[in-house]
Amino acid sequence: MRKAYSYFRPCLQWLQFLKQDCLKEYFNKGKNESEDSKLRFETYQLIWQQMKYETEQLQEELNKNLFDSLIKFLQKCHSGFQNNSRDWGYQIKLREIPTAALILGVNVTDHDLTFRSLTETLQNNVTPYIVSLQARDCPDMKHFLQKMFSQLVDCCVDVESKEEEKDVQKKTHCSMDSLSSWYINVTQKTDPGKPGKKRNSSQCQPPPVVLILKDLESFTTKALQDFIIISSQHLHEFPLILIFGIATSPVIIHRLLPHAVSSLLCIEIFQSLSCKQHLTTVLDKLLLTTQFPFKLSEKVLQILTNIFLCYDFSIQNFIKGLQLSLLEHFYSQPLSVLCCNLSEAKRRITFLSDNQCENIRRLPSFRRYVEKQAAEKQVALLTNEKFLKEETQSLLENLHVYHTNYFLVLRCLHQFTSSLPKYPLGRQIRELYCTCLEKNVWDSEEYVSALQLLRMLAKDELMTILQKCFDILKSSSEKQLGGTAKRIEELLAQFQSPDAEVKEEEDASGSQSKGLQKTDLYHLQKSLLEMRELRRSGKKQTKFEILREKVVSFIDNLVREYLLPPETQPLHEVVYFTAAHTLHQHLNAAPRMALHTALNNPYHYLKNEALKSEEGCIPNVAPDICIAYKLHLECSRLINLVDWSEAFATVVTAAEKMDANSITSEERNEVIHARFIRAVSELELLGFIKPTKRKTDHVARLTWGGC
Prior knowledge:
The protein is of the alpha/beta class. It is 60% helix and 6% strand. The strands form 3 sheets. A 5-stranded parallel β-sheet has the order 2-3-4-1-5, sandwiched between helices. It has a 3-stranded antiparallel β-sheet with strand order 8-10-9. Strands 6-7 form a two-stranded parallel sheet. It is globular.
């Protein structure tokens, strides 16, 4: 049962597993242990460390603007505590607590990382006195102040004074008066310039106390109201600044606090980056690039994005899912040893063993490639190891060039389609990427619709999009699409030239008048429709319309040439992880089915040969709960406990070989009865049965059809 439980726990079990030191043992164990397993594991670690560093840098960049705005707000509020103290308007405002409402979104699992980064930034730039509280630690005012005081004591730089303050805290009752006295004593003893490394506040101003309420929605209304009211009366001696962590909307402040309390807060709202925008940025940095050779198939990427969009909106969980995909790829694919940068992959190819060369020949994409070659080359690829290695190096180089061109053209196509009405190919580039991974995008109705809409764009819109595409191609260090950039530059130059009308060619068919020989209504209508179509087709085109058609045809040719699905490329299995079913089992497993499998067939998880049995049989050495579960499957809606207990005892005693002199029959029956009661209690705890009053000594069955 313990193994089954760890099997079906959704994402949490794998998130914890990926942090453990046993990862290497898992990677090298069992049938997957091979001659290059150590090298594959080292390659996995190298790629993951690079990806992890990239995501951390990205997180810092995304948080920088938000944190800078918060720091300016806090420094401005703190400077106000010291200035204009005689101003009547300021005296009124002095009782208002500066409050930053930080809207972080519903991705609650990412909030801890954001608050850790925020705490570190504030300690380095504003104040060393940072307190972070959660609702579960503050059910009332007493615990609120105790937690706050204990964390403030931990902020002290001097270790000796910290120990003294902890002793004082144990002896005295925590209140705002004691907090104010503590703050005055600490700020008088400590030079305010020392705790903060980069603090910009004046040396004569003691640093403020910043209180972060991580989950504002979960705090009790009474505790929050009492704290705000009392704190506002001590602002002149205890400069407090609040930061509210909000997952939903700023309206929650007014729902939790009445006007009399919310009027004591000077609130400013700060909005973090949207979760979807964050996901797009992460995909752009990790997958839509040639910096990392590892790629995801369409189904795997769809599973990860669906979990993100439908469950938690958590970027950290998405990255952990990406790490799990990377691990599974290097664990299950022997040729993943070549999933590294191009120069290192070419070097490793020269040292491939005969078994690894056979693995290359077994790849479906390589077999399709061999079938298209001439007969002599086919023989050489299947028999000559040296020629195979040379060809593999060439194919991997072509795969690298394919990805370089693929991502550049993908970004250009996204520039054209992301602003179209109703977004036929998706608003985000990840949607377009999934479509291109799945099939030939030009065969879809959405692509045809997008081309029709492109033929209706205005001149300034086309020029703006072409300029963005030109910048994308020029920003790339690769020169494979240099001719394409030159062609776009020529099109831009033509758009900038003065408009000129294209001479209309004479349409002989349109000038000739058709005699309306038929006088009936049907033939007359048909003839008039034909003449209207001829006039429409013979309408002259302007230079802009001709150029616009050239641009659409140019983009269409690029898409058909470079946006081929990865399955068309030889050796794509080396870098693409395609085991969507395995990933789905780890991240979206079904708990009821896992429980049923564990109880009905314990050998599936325990791997004990004694537990093997034929279908429909109950092994007498199985765990008690498994025996009771299989017996309950044979019962109807109401189960007689007496009959169930006798059947259980019959199965159990068949496995026991006890000496008649060592234990009496009554004692043995008592032991079996106790085991049965425990098994039934466990089944009730798992939700398979429940007590019933309809019949004496009966329980009701709750599950049917093998769960």
